[in-house]
Design the sequence.
């Protein structure tokens, strides 16, 4: 009886020692199995234990900086309208995250975030070439549905921006007008392209305008921004009045 008890105690001690020696690996393995290796929760757990990212990020700034220009169009842009459906490479809008991984395989870049309290955004990046130029093709998903694609260029000095602009306009509106301004193209399938060049960076984005989760997120951000501007304006007016009263 004592021998059996000793054996059980020894096994428990060994298991405890094993767990405390490898508990980080065990938790990371279980979180990957439960949540998936391409998930916001797994990224958070990984960064908590490793203090680093499991994958290089697709983008370094916040999501809103990539999509807000579809809510509030930039001043000075030209708007075109197309009878054609717009699509970003091989990914159809509203296609699933799993479909993309199945088609393209393991991504070179990945990060994720939460918006609207409970909607998960996954941002997937692949190294590709466009007109013999190295680029990063970025795919944006919300709750595993594709809503935006973006080309990010490593060195715009190697790109003939006018030719690229001409190719896009010829494809979707069957005509070309030399245009030094940024432009939007609205497609027949509730989609939009934004082409922007500020002299330092080139932006080409393909956006699905009917994703309700993203539209709700944009509305909330826009409301906060407007309220903030109103608050700042009121504070400035109060300070002007106060300074005027003090001057009297």
Sequence:
């Amino acid at each position: 009886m004592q021998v059996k008890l000793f054996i059980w105690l020894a096994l428990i001690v060994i298991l405890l020692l094993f767990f405390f020696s490898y508990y980080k690996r065990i938790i990371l393995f279980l979180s990957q199995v439960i949540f998936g290796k391409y998930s916001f929760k797994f990224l958070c757990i990984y960064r908590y234990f490793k203090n680093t990212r499991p994958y290089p990020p697709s983008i370094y700034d916040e999501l809103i900086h990539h999509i807000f220009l579809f809510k509030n169009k930039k001043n000075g842009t030209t708007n075109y309208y197309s009878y054609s459906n717009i699509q970003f490479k091989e990914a159809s809008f509203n296609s699933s995250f799993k479909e993309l991984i199945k088609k393209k395989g393991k991504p070179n870049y990945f990060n994720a975030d939460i918006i609207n309290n409970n909607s998960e955004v996954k941002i997937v990046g692949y190294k590709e070439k466009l007109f013999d130029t190295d680029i990063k093709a970025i795919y944006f998903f919300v709750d595993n549905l594709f809503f935006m694609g973006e080309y990010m260029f490593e060195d715009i000095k190697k790109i003939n921006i006018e030719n690229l602009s001409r190719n896009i306009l010829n494809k979707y509106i069957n005509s070309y007008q030399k245009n030094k301004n940024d432009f939007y193209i609205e497609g027949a399938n509730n989609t939009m392209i934004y082409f922007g060049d500020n002299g330092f960076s080139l932006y080409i984005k393909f956006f699905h305008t009917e994703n309700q989760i993203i539209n709700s997120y944009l509305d909330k951000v826009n409301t906060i921004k407007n309220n903030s501007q109103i608050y700042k304006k009121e504070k400035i007016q109060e300070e002007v009045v106060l300074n005027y009263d003090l001057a009297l």
Remarks:
- The first helix runs from residue 2 to 35.
- The longest strand covers residues 119-130.
- The chain has two domains: 2-50, 64-217.
